[in-house]
Amino acid sequence: MNAKQLQKEMALWIVRLNTDDLHERQQAQIEFEAWRSKYPEHHDQLDQMLNFSETMQQFSTTHGISSQNVRNSMKVSQQSKKHILQLFSKVLVFCVSIGGVVYFTAHSTMMSYYTADYKTEIGQMHSITLEDGSKVTLAAKSAIKLDFTAEKRQINLVQGDIYIDVAKDPQRPLIVHTAQADFKALGTRFIVYQYANSSVLNMLHSKVETRSLAQNSQVKVVKQGEKISADSLGLSPISELDIASTEFAWDKHQILADQLPLADLLTNLGRYHHQYLIFNHSTLKDYKVSGVINAKQDLDQTLRLLVTQYPIKITKLGDHVIYITSK
């Protein structure tokens, strides 16, 4: 069996071994052991797959892969590797995203992403001009939904990062809404980053009123050359921002990390590479990253560098799945 066929088969086995139907799961285990015995030369890779499958099973007890998905996977078992991997990714994302612990940083299947008004794909950056004349640039794998009426202008940042040059309309201040805050434009240019548990504003020109969506409902005005973050607890202190470096980094697909949680860095990297980065957000939350990272450089090279600096372990499952754990 060649490497490509092995990856295809492994993807199918992970789907079958994590079905919510106990009988089908037991039958799959019997069939897998028989199949595995035929390929002793691939035992190391198959052991990695089993370790990954065991990790997934802690979620499948309550949020399992449906038996219908398993049957669908078997129906397409003769299709191309691309189709198998697409099915594999969708099923596994569904399995764990409800549990809220493991994050897939490629090929998001969130309905809100697919129903967004504007979105970008992996590695893609795209600029648009809205009906009011405002210009918005979406970073890789980002998405927005618009809520424009005669009374208001609101951009809902579904995921990712956006750079905005706001057209003036005193009667309808433009608001960027994230999961943690509302950013009301009192000026023109700024960047908003949406992470898993926080959102960040970088103010490039004029000022923005930031209102926390936490219970304390804090409000702070962020001026040119300043930045602020918002999370479930409220707003951070306002800190200084290097405007020139920030704009350069945006244009060059660089990540300016300043005590950025490692999980958020991995999420960003996943938006630029056609590989699945799988990790437990909570186990990596205490690791902070500072520095300049080129999001488009070779992913393996970036991960090797991270391994030298943080107590993490990288496990590759074929060419398309990378499993990251804390040591």
TrEMBL record:
Keyword line: Membrane, Transmembrane, Transmembrane helix
The FecR protein domain, residue ranges: 117-209
Pfam families named among the record's database cross-references: FecR, FecR_C
Domain called Protein FecR C-terminal: residue spans: 258-322
Keyword Membrane: yes
Membrane-crossing segments per the record: 84-106
Signal sequence extent: none
Entry GO MF terms: sigma factor antagonist activity
PANTHER family attached to this UniProt entry: PERIPLASMIC SIGNAL SENSOR AND SIGMA FACTOR ACTIVATOR FECR-RELATED, PROTEIN FECR
Full protein name: FecR domain-containing protein
Source species: Acinetobacter guillouiae
